[in-house]
TrEMBL record:
UniProt-recorded Gene Ontology molecular function terms: 3'-tRNA processing endoribonuclease activity; metal ion binding
Organism of derivation: Lingula anatina
Keyword Ion transport: no
Catalytic activity: Endonucleolytic cleavage of RNA, removing extra 3' nucleotides from tRNA precursor, generating 3' termini of tRNAs. A 3'-hydroxy group is left at the tRNA terminus and a 5'-phosphoryl group is left at the trailer molecule
Cofactor: Zn(2+)
UniProt family annotation: Belongs to the RNase Z family.
Gene3D superfamilies: Ribonuclease Z/Hydroxyacylglutathione hydrolase-like
Keyword tRNA processing applies: yes
Pfam families to which the protein is assigned, alphabetical: Anti-Pycsar_Apyc1
EC number: 3.1.26.11
Source superkingdom: Eukaryota
Lineage of producing organism: Eukaryota, Metazoa, Spiralia, Lophotrochozoa, Brachiopoda
UniProt-recorded name of the protein: ribonuclease Z
Amino acid sequence: MAKLKAIYISHLHIDHHMGICTVLLQRRNLLQRLGLEVEPVMVIAGRFMSPWIQTIGEDFIEDINSLFELFSTNDFMPDKYWVSNRQRVRKQLVQRHVTNTLGLTEFRTTLVGHCRGATGLLLRHKKNWSLVYSGDAEYSRNLVALGKDCDVLIHEATFSEEEKDLAVLHKHCTTSQAIQVGQEMNAKFTLLTHFSQRYGRVPEFNDSFNDKVGVAHDFMRVRLTDLPLLPMFNHPLELLFSSERN
């Protein structure tokens, strides 16, 4: 928590950002106990976040406005033809500030299909690795283009193949669609996450899984060099958690 520098909010659904106030306060309390300076965290989110977090900050039991610095995901998207030179310069300054603070060479976002303003993310590190995160999203050509040849794709895989209609209705992906995105962008590894609760802690495994696809868990930490080991756990995980499926 003390090392936390930035929080990325992919979209406006409240289950993806409601806990941010508690995170900011707990981080501040920890830094104070450690005798460290409480520098604001960068919060990178859609425009919806500004009025929401400002209101929460004013009405919260404790003032949190000094604990974060808010940036719009729009500032990390490609320029549109109507952007003025002044706006373009401001975006460049914002991008430079964020990438320098996080030790990155690139931080980019793109719109994805889920709800208004939903975005996916690409980041490239100075140590020459890249990561793409889908957020909540249906199959997205924008994301495929953004993440071309990335090292790691973290993609939601909410529904099983038998529930394609639900995936379309709720603008989510099936496991096979998520894996397809990774294949089309030529990702070196695809890490699946955000599984429907009806499957328990793992998705429904199928024939689309391969040696470049692994399964994520809450609080999981894995080195980039160890990612190729994750597919070895897919079958044991399927056996271990099969009884949890509804």
